[in-house]
Amino acid sequence: MHKIWKVTIVLLVLSAIIDKVFAYPKSPVQSVFEANEIVPDVIPIAPYWKVWVTYATGVEVEFGNELTPTEVKDIPFVWWTCDDKSHKYYTLAIVDPDAPSRVEPTSRNWNHWLVGNIPGNDVPSGETIADFVGAGPGLGSGLHRYVYLVYKQPSRLFFNEPRLSNRSAVNRTNFSITDFAKKYNLGDPIAGNFFVAQYDDYVPILYEQLGL
Ligand SMILES: *[C@@H]1O[C@H](CO)[C@@H](O)[C@H](O)[C@H]1NC(C)=O
Ligand SMILES: *[C@@H]1O[C@H](CO)[C@@H](O)[C@H](O)[C@H]1NC(C)=O
Ligand SMILES: *[C@@H]1O[C@H](CO)[C@@H](O)[C@H](O)[C@H]1NC(C)=O
């Protein structure tokens, strides 16, 4: 083999090894968000950290595990690491990008819960913008992704938004958490998690509550 080719091959192999060893590693959250297309369907950049979510029925959200609407019908306990005392306020959201279905998501996203001005990770002390509504995937619409996102706020904020009740479906569709984050200068989400769910017999009860 010609010497120049040998040198080139050695250099290519070396640079591949250096890339592998020194590249900034993706976190498990970032890898799973990208593999499940939450990036780019919901957000342009995946969060680094995990959000812990436990429902009263005992089930936990764990990066795409399947839960039933019955299991996730009530407000969960949500927790994330927030040791940065200079940034005291956080925003929490749950959105379903697969409304009305993942194959034809014409109402992307459905706004399931939006709480701002959360002091640290004390969600019940935050300011509710959209009341919590559990998962309500339509009959025959397949699995939907339910995405939890936490943003660090630059300061305490005034949210100039209509307050959405859990007794109505008005203004829940076509919601972009990314546009919301831009509007309020929240940057990219710092933590996230998600589960998937499909129709079960709790869904008609939920639709009745929403007046659908
Ligand atoms: C949501 O967006 C779709 C298309 O992007 C549009 O057809 C529909 O009317 C919108 N729905 C509402 C409630 O604005
Ligand atoms: C729905 O959104 C529109 C436009 O932002 C607003 O004018 C209206 O008051 C909202 N309705 C409810 C019930 O939140
Ligand atoms: C609706 O939201 C209110 C206020 O957040 C809460 O007290 C109530 O339990 C919720 N109702 C349902 C049916 O989820």
UniProtKB/TrEMBL annotation:
Q: Which UniProt keywords apply?
A: Signal
A Pfam family found in this protein is PBP
The record's section on InterPro entries has: PEBP, PEBP-like_sf, PEBP_euk
Provide the leader sequence positions: 1-23
Q: Does the keyword Signal apply?
A: yes
Gene3D superfamilies, from UniProt? PEBP-like
Name of the molecule in the record: Protein D2-like
Organism of this sequence:
Bicyclus anynana (Squinting bush brown butterfly)
> What is this protein's gene name?
LOC112056314
